[in-house]
Amino acid sequence: MVSEIKRNNWSRFLKKFSSSNQYRPATIRVAADGSDRTPATERAALLGVALEKKGRLIDGIQLFAGLGYAESIDEPVVSIKQPSKVLLNKDDDGRDVQLTVISGDGTAATIELNGERDEDLYNQLVGRVAYSLYEQRGNGHGNDSEDWQEAQRRIKAAELSFTE
Known about the structure:
This protein has helices at 10-21, 119-136, 144-163, and strands spanning 2-4, 25-31, 38-54, 57-66, 78-81, 83-90, 96-103, 108-113. It is an alpha+beta fold. The chain has 3 helices and 8 strands. The protein has a single domain (2-118, 157-163), classed as Protein Yojf, Chain: A (Distorted Sandwich), CATH 2.70.180. A hairpin with a 5-residue loop joins strand 6 and strand 7 (96-103). The protein has an 8-stranded antiparallel β-sheet.
């Protein structure tokens, strides 16, 4: 069942959507003007969806997934400028299965949710971010637990930014 989210509810809806679906396996696809949807990510941990504002005006909607780079954990995978529609598709059991954001020029980004919240995806993301931190330090050994804790801290900070 597909429903359109009213523009005046976008902020609240996106926070609720993010909170309900964080760390679910997600594929994010982008299509311009009805063309085939090109995957931006495949089976990544969904982190969240957020409004991008200029002052009080909505300038875009950003989609975030855990790709595992320490320096870009808080950067969107896709940003749809000048969004005109937000559509939510739920399955017969009422679970979110797809979110589509459409811009005024016809560009569309879709999050396809596959499965339940996955702790393994979360742990894989922490591992990739920790390894990225290790590489940034010049591959110096002996700081495994500090890298792991810093990765968890960065992911938690990003996670909270979508739900508060």
